[in-house]
Structures are given as structure tokens and as C-alpha cells.
């Protein structure tokens, strides 16, 4: 196999190559997605460089800065050049209308939002209404609780995701799931993320593939996307240093040019910068944005 730095060779953290080599569920290949089901981003969103319409900044990465100066921090994000952002379940004590007014004034769009599995199961319609008011295009389940980490748990989650996806689609929003490490760790020989993909409707559900977590799980991102064509709708971006720690985008070992070259043919439409615990959040925001704006592939 051709080596593409760490993204092709894989990087194992907390799992062995043997454990990750177990057969996955057979998933029928898709000839092509129904693109009308996917919120539109201009076709120029992928090309020889990653342009602003395809980039976003996540709230969680800058949460400590937001706690200190909410409006000012988002203004800095806008001044840096970002035009899209991702929020989570919290509206920071504000109404959707208040947030929309603020972000409109900064020329920022809340293109994506993350919600919990509890919200997906219990109050999803309300979350969709709030998200429509914010202008959200992508709603993503942010994590799978450890208590649900069984094959039966994932089968039920797949049913919940199909139901949520139908509600979101009716509203013109694309629903999906954001992975962490555990979705790639086999349970009784079955990779949970493969199970979710096998038992969800591609017209109703796609993935927000967190590339950093996938690489840490030993997953070859390009091979994964090849095996599941058009099932990845958006990216979460975090780089991985040689020692397995987080790094600003472009400062680690992941071959981003190879991934984006492939993603451009898979119609991946949005990339959200998402480092979990950067020691200097703003330095990582700035360095990641600068790298992505200059990335050629």
C-alpha cells in the first residue's frame, strides 16, 4: 500500500492493528447520492484550494475565549476570514433570533450545529425549529454515550437516526453523526460505525467524519471513504502529532492534500476546524485557518 504519511498508514491509540482488522459489515455501495437531499454549497467549494465557503470554525474549540468575551471572540473569528461556524446544543442564554442578529452583523453563518443523542430522541423537533431560525444546514449528533456502546444499542441508534433524518430532511436540513474513537472499535467483531452506515438510509443520514479521531483509531481515511462512497457529508478537522497528541491543522502528520484531493470527488461539502483542547486556542485557530487557506491539492 502506498504510504500517505499518517493518514494512509494509520495511527493506533488504545487499540491494536489486529483488533482493527476484523471484518466490517458488508454495506451496499451507492452509485451516487441524491444531491437534492444535501444542502447546497457552491460547486467551487472544492478545487485546487479549500475556499472559505467550505470552511467553518467550531464553538467548542474556542469555548474558553467565548466565556471571556462572547461577541468579541466571534468578531475575531470573522476578522480572521471565516464565514461559517458550528454551534452546539447551547444557545448561550440567547434566543435564536438574538444569535442570528449577532452573527448576521458579523457576516457569519451558523452552517452546522451539534446536538446530543438525548435531544435526538426526545426534543429533536424543537432543535430543528431553533436550527432553522439560526440558518443551520447540517445537524449532527455529537457523541454516543458509553452506556449505548453495544451492538443492540447501535441498532436502536440507527433507527433513531433514520427517524431524525426524515424530520430534518423535511425541514431542508441534513442530519448526521460526528464520530469519536469508540465508533471504530469493534464489538464482537463488528465495527459500530459500519453498523450505523449499514442500517441507516443514505438519503436521511450521513457522517461528519472527525478525521483526527479516525486516524487515531488506525483508520485510513481515504480507504474508509472509498468503501463508503458519498456517506461522508462534512469533516471535522484536527491534526495528529507524531506522539498521538492534537496539533493545529497542518502542524501534524496527516496528509491533508491527499484527503482533500479525494474528498473533492466525494462531494464533501464543509470542513469544521475542531481541536478539543488546544493549549492556546486562538493560536491554533489562526494557524489552522492559515494552513487551510493555502492548502493546494
SSE inventory with pairings:
Layout lengths: L4 H5 L7 H4 L34 E4 L4 H6 L1 H11 L3 E4 L8 H10 L3 E7 L1 H6 L1 H11 L3 E4 L9 H21 L2 E5 L13 H7 L7 E5 H6 L4 H7 L4 E6 L1 E2 L5 E2 L8 H11 L3 E4 L7 H14 L3
Parallel strand pairs: 1-2, 1-10, 2-3, 3-4, 4-5, 5-6, 6-7, 7-10
Antiparallel strand pairs: 8-9
Task: Sum this structure up briefly.
Residues 75-263 form the Xylose isomerase-like TIM barrel domain. With 297 residues, the chain is α/β, with parallel strands linked by helices.
Question: What key phrases describe this protein's structure?
Answer:
single chain; 297 residues; alpha/beta; TIM Barrel; eight-stranded parallel β-barrel; two-stranded antiparallel ribbon; 13 helices; globular; disordered N terminus
